[in-house]
Structure formats: structure tokens, C-alpha cells
Design goal:
InterPro entries: BrxC. It contains 4 helices and 5 strands, in the order αβαβαβαββ. It has 128 residues and is an alpha/beta fold. Helix 3 links the parallel strand 2 and strand 3. The longest helix has 15 residues.
Length: 128
């Protein structure tokens, strides 16, 4: 692996999904996530797998989540691959009345976005 691949993530980078993510890959998955927001806070991380900035922000966010001792105290975390599921991202923007950005973190309670951030503004602080 080259120096740049180590820094920026190369082609050999494993598409490893962290265990705390719940994937959104269908309208049913999205519906379940939004329904869950009525019982507890959820967060949706919208990620572009081809974007360097999105990869960097995701990696930093995951490191921050992994550093938390008790992840039960934070929102349920959902992950949306924007390239594979762009129509779902569009549906989220339309249904939740929030402009699409990438990367983007949406924090949702009772079916409404209560906090959101994009790019380098994404942090675990949005979850509290």
C-alpha cells in the first residue's frame, strides 16, 4: 500500500462496516428508522463512498464513536451509502424537509430532524 493510500484510503481499503451501524438500503429500512425515532433518538449518516472528504469525515466520526465507553447512551446509528441508494437520500431530503448534502449527519427524534451537520462539522456532539 502506498503512502497516499495509507493516508487517504486506497483501492485495497476494506469495505468494513462497523458493528454499530444499521444499514438503510430500502424504503422499509428508512421507514423503520423513522418509526424508531419516536421511541428514541436516531442518527442517519449519509456517506458518498467515492468522496475523499466523506471518507475522512466518516473515519473520524467512527473513531469518536468507538472511543465512547457506553454507546447505549447515544442515538441509534444508521448508515446510508449515497451512491448505491441515491433515491433513498432524495426521499430523506424530501420527507424530512432538509437539503441534501454529503457527507451529512441527521439527528432525528419524533420523526423530525433536531440537529444536522455536514462535512467537517459532523461530530458526535450533534448526537447530544
Amino acid at each position: 500500500m502506498s503512502f497516499f493510500d495509507k493516508i487517504f484510503g486506497g483501492k485495497e481499503e476494506a469495505k468494513e462496516q462497523k458493528s454499530f451501524w444499521k444499514k438503510i438500503e430500502s424504503e422499509d429500512d428508512l421507514k423503520i428508522a423513522i418509526e424508531n425515532s419516536y421511541a428514541y433518538k436516531i442518527a442517519i449518516f449519509k456517506h458518498s463512498t467515492s468522496c475523499f472528504i466523506s471518507k475522512t469525515v466518516l473515519r473520524n466520526f467512527e473513531k469518536d464513536i468507538e472511543s465512547i465507553e457506553n454507546t447505549d447512551d447515544i442515538a441509534d446509528l444508521y448508515f446510508l451509502d449515497l451512491l448505491a441508494y441515491r433515491p433513498l437520500s432524495n426521499k430523506i431530503a424530501e420527507d424530512l424537509e432538509i437539503r441534501h448534502e454529503s457527507p451529512q449527519l441527521l439527528v432525528i427524534e419524533n420523526g423530525k430532524v433536531i440537529n444536522h451537520a455536514s462535512h467537517q462539522d459532523i461530530s458526535i456532539n450533534q448526537l447530544s
